[in-house]
Specification:
Layout: H1 2-13, H2 24-41
Helix pairs in contact: 1-2
Protein name: Amidophosphoribosyltransferase
Transmembrane segments: 22-41
Keywords: Membrane, Transmembrane, Transmembrane helix
Length: 49
Amino acid sequence: MSIGAALAVIYFGNRPEDGGGVTNSVLLLAVLAGLAVWYLTRPGGKPVS
């Protein structure tokens, strides 16, 4: 899910009509979105010992 969120940010943040591609800020936002989704969807239980 986190990879999908990051790819969605990159996809929707891309502006080919402006003549530019993906900027560094879009990449940073994609990484932050991926980390946020991973943090919110990680298993909450204790590890099995």
